[in-house]
Amino acid sequence: MNQRILTPVVVLAAGVAISAIAFDATAQTSGYWTNPATNGAAWKNSVGQCWRAGYWTPAMATKECDADLLPKPPPPPPPAPVVKPAPPPPPPPKPAPKPAPKPVAEKVTLAADVLFDFDKSVIKNEGKAKLDDLAQKVKAVNLEVVIAIGHTDSIGSDAYNQKLSVRRAESVKAYLVSKGVEPNRIYTEGKGEKQPVASNKTKEGRAKNRRVEIEVIGTRK
Fold this sequence. Notes:
- By secondary structure, this protein is α+β, with helices and mostly antiparallel strands.
- Helices cover about 35% and strands about 20% of the residues.
- The protein has helices at about 1-30, 65, 110-115, 125-140, 160-180, 205-210; strands spanning about 35, 40, 105-110, 140-150, 185-190, 210-220.
């Protein structure tokens, strides 16, 4: 009777020994007790923890049993910075406006003896040549105004000389208009004997006082 009972016990003990040998051999390589019957899956307790072998070290940690001991993967690289497009370049500065043309003025003094016979206001041929030259200069500018002022010497009364100076200034205007100068651009005035430039006591001085002053004001074209 005792022989019948021992046989299965011996067989069972032998089976346990064989399993332990295989169990231990697997643990030596993995650090965990594994079950050969489940393709080497680690044995786990009732709460799901793996059985570690006595020689287990953290270096033997596996994802299945001790994932928190494994080296953490590096964080993903930060997203590439968003590069804002460069602002458009500012518009080029506007060119500086051209400076306004400076007005030009030319003043011509013509002797009355060149323009007129004595005591007359009709322009002589010699005087016309002088005024022709002046008219060409007037056409070369953007005309603003022509100022013609007649003067006399002191021979004769003040009233007479005043009227004579006005007639001579008007004669100059009429001639310039005949050469294409706009009449509304010509201003005339007579000063008589009021503004002498030399002494009326001498013949030479009186000749200088008999004159027509013409001033042209405008801008160059």
